[in-house]
Amino acid sequence: MPDSLIHPRWCERAMSDFHVHPQATVGEEGGVARFQCQIHGLPKPLITWEKNRVPIDTDNERYTLLPKGVLQITGLRAEDGGIFHCVASNIASIRISHGARLTVSGSGSGAYKEPAILVGPENLTLTVHQTAVLECV
């Protein structure tokens, strides 16, 4: 009997361990913080985020889920500090990343600062009719 008849399709479903875990970061009040995680699975895992083990409220416009497992928080406030986890789920399983602490520091003197590019755009390879998202923070 061929193997394809012995093993039902659900046996092909799986999820790897995280390739990239979120990293601790320090952000300044009013600034931007970003966390990233990467994981592979079949079917492709749905990525969500938790802060202090509570799901992130994505209705809050300051919390944005970007492609490639990135959580971006803008207009940082002291109450944004905490431990963030990436949660990947598909029909095969659920995986939770290591925790990463966000520390929000005071804005200091309030003096003007030169702009700095935190994250520039990355190269993309797409097929016709796919949407490209090029980020610059």
TrEMBL record:
Gene3D superfamilies (alphabetical): Immunoglobulins
Pfam families associated with the record: Ig_3
SMART domains: IG (SM00409), IGc2 (SM00408)
Listed GO CC annotations: membrane
Annotated Ig-like domain residues: 2-97
Membrane topology summary: Single-pass membrane protein
Keywords: Disulfide bond, Immunoglobulin domain, Membrane, Repeat, Transmembrane, Transmembrane helix
Protein location: Membrane
Xref: InterPro entries: Ig-like_dom, Ig-like_dom_sf, Ig-like_fold, Ig_sub, Ig_sub2
Protein name: Immunoglobulin superfamily DCC subclass member 3
Lineage of producing organism: Eukaryota, Metazoa, Chordata, Craniata, Vertebrata
Name of the encoding gene: IGDCC3
